[in-house]
Amino acid sequence: MAAARINCSSVQNSLCFLNPLQYYSFNSKASHLRTHLHFRRNFPSPSSRRALFCSAATTRNGGSAEAEPFVLTTPLYYVNAPPHMGSAYTTIAADAIARFQRLLGKKVVFVTGTDEHGEKIAAAAASNGSAPKEHCDVISQAYKNLWKDLDIAYDKFIRTTDPKHEAIVKEFYSRVLASGDIYRADYEGLYCVNCEEYKDEKELLDNNCCPMHLKPCVPRKEDNYFFALSKYQKLLEDTLTQNPDFVKPSFRLNEVQSWIKGGLRDFSISRASVDWGIPVPNDSKQTIYVWFDALLGYISALSEDTKESNLQKAVSSGWPATLHLIGKDILRFHAVYWPAMLMSAGLGLPKMVFGHGFLTKDGMKMGKSLGNTIEPNDLVSKFGSDAVRYFFLREVEFGGDGDYSEARFINIVNAHLANTIGNLLNRTLGLLKKNCQSTLVVDSSIAAVGTAFKDDVEKLVEKARVHYENLSLSSACEAVLEIGNAGNLYMDERAPWSLFKQGGAAAESAAEVFKKHTLLHIF
Ligand SMILES: Nc1ncnc2c1ncn2[C@@H]1O[C@H](COP(=O)(O)OP(=O)(O)OP(=O)(O)O)[C@@H](O)[C@H]1O
Asked: Boundaries of each Methionyl/Leucyl tRNA synthetase domain copy (predicted)?
């Protein structure tokens, strides 16, 4: 068995194995330690560490854990305003899932980006005296900056103003047209400018207010192109019956099934009154409306940045996606409109759409239109990205809603990250530095073998794996925290510091404790 030499940064990387966080608060304190540990590990190579996870992944994928890339997407965020904690929430969750899948040894393609067309963008640009594209450049960059500050490791960032995207949208539109699913008609109804869609009167509040944006919808009449969604009613019903995992969590599947059961209406896919958009092929007076534009970003993101990008090439680079991660506000579009559009274009459906809940403020969805947002930049600069990432993953049951409170944030971060995980790593590395010249050779044949600690940690690793697979991110964090608690308890029981203090034979025996100290082996 080969000995492995690791330094602090490899300890940190190994921690991602278990955790949505890249590493814990120990990083800043411990990076100066320059601790070099030589040890033989129970899992000496990355591939043997992955084996723990891959056995299950292999079974699930019918024997080809490495074969298909894991393609996951966040929504393409609308650049009507800079990002807020709600946009960050989806992206943090996606990043944690992407890291976990990479640790399984999968090739991951993590797609995010910005949706940049439409009436609201043109209006936002006009209100600050800039051209729409200029406005989009600024806000899109604000998203990229925030992802950097939050340590988000995306693979593809697509902007819907990217020329390769426009080419793919037009091609997709033409395919659907050729399937006979696009027609032209007059439409008259109540329109929510913030949702940029016509609403059914029965879904509106008093005074025709949109339930999401609390602003009155306005009567509007337009000559538009429509997509014949109603033709796909039966196919969608059958698809969901045969693939109940298509929509998660399962209670959202019920919602989607009841929408479909209630009858599907064709929907408008162009706007005659909006210039800032991709022109409808063969009708430059109309621009393509949001869903036939933004949703295609998931495919165009896969395309290489060449002039020859086309739908087929993009599709062959990883479509269909494995997982669309979205907020419940856009579930209908992803779980009903999008699969029907893909069927019409003859393309495969994504494997899963997961609709998580809302971060709320005073019970209302936090959002750009309501303006009741929390600034992630403020949180990151005050508490650091690990704390922000951890808090929202741990605190909000993934799928449900969650309210933010600063007092709760501070309590959780102190108790879990500083006092449990950070403390365990600091005391371990601190003792090594002080007593072992920052160096330790551990023989895996004796390392923690037969200790209850090792057994407990291995069970917890498996527990975390299962929770990650099921996208139960809060429970995965909990399992990791339990490992930290078990490690601290183990240290307290063995108290190697008092043996080190005694020196001589006692110090030798303390070093033995370290050899058997499983934490670094397991991580
Ligand atoms: N409060 C929130 N809680 C959780 N996720 C959110 C929240 N707000 C936005 N998101 C994420 O952003 C997506 C919507 O992106 P969008 O850019 O339209 O943001 P928005 O703030 O909801 O905009 P608006 O308020 O104008 O409707 C959601 O599907 C979800 O992924």
From this structure: 202-429
